[in-house]
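Sequence and structure are kept together here, with a separate record for every protein. An example record follows, reproduced without changes.
>
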Amino acid sequence: MEATRRRQHLGATGGPGAQLGASFLQARHGSVSADEAARTAPFHLDLWFYFTLQNWVLDFGRPIAMLVFPLEWFPLNKPSVGDYFHMAYNVITPFLLLKLIERSPRTLPRSITYVSIIIFIMGASIHLVGDSVNHRLLFSGYQHHLSVRENPIIKNLKPETLVRPPPAPCLSTPLSCSTIMMSTWVTACGETEARGRRAPKAAAGRYIPFFLILFMYFSGCFTASKAESLIPGPALLLVAPSGLYYWYLVTEGQIFILFIFTFFAMLALVLHQKRKRLFLDSNGLFLFSSFALTLLLVALWVAWLWNDPVLRKKYPGVIYVPEPWAFYTLHVSSRH
């Protein structure tokens, strides 16, 4: 009789298995209870600080470190200090993005989050190779403000088949295959820029999942209390370095179109939620303010270099966003 009453009690309450299944379905389908909707996450000062710091040190500071450290410490035939910075960036950034998603007051779709993280890591790894080659080209005399075919080291490259591969390449070894692929890419970039169009960025696709994750997190940064829609003091100190870093990311990565679409999507979401009397919390205000500052900095950067004839030649068209390192090689390093 005691066992029968225990089974009846478990059937009435649902038991641990039923409770676990209910919580699993709630997390899977993203249903939000009333308490969860009213809950507002505090400002994540630790995550935003670490995120801004590692962006400045490991991403923005990577090419600077490669110029500052003596070449004898990191020869060109070995990994450079920038390569180690990039490896650390590829590990720390996905971890911080995952921690940011975990602290979101809204349950976000896990499958999209994990796929975006995986694609971001893959793209960042590809960018590691391209950045390593770019570092060696810079020390070999490559000038970023010129197109591929106009660079002196490409003009003087021997044999010429490295720039323009033969019609029937030999694929007998993996080395020859990779050489042909790289030379074909260089040829395509050179012909594209020679026809007056900008060469494509190979690693620009890695920023798509990055901005997608930030937008998904941003979609959960709303509160019903207008009194909680304020930026705390520490957050104001991080807005300027965060916005300045995103300016560097947009200009150097040549992802202005992706950035402007993300910003306008965020703006449209803010206006849509405002009709429901929902306001941005401190984390959402920080992210939105950083992006707004980035847009302002990009506009000032473009206006400042609008009439530069050399950069205008490399970046033709209406969407004119020069790269900072192209400006550096043209106006700074050429003077020394």
User: Anything to note?
Assistant: The radius of gyration is 25 Å. Confidence is low (pLDDT under 50) at residues 1-37, 165-200.
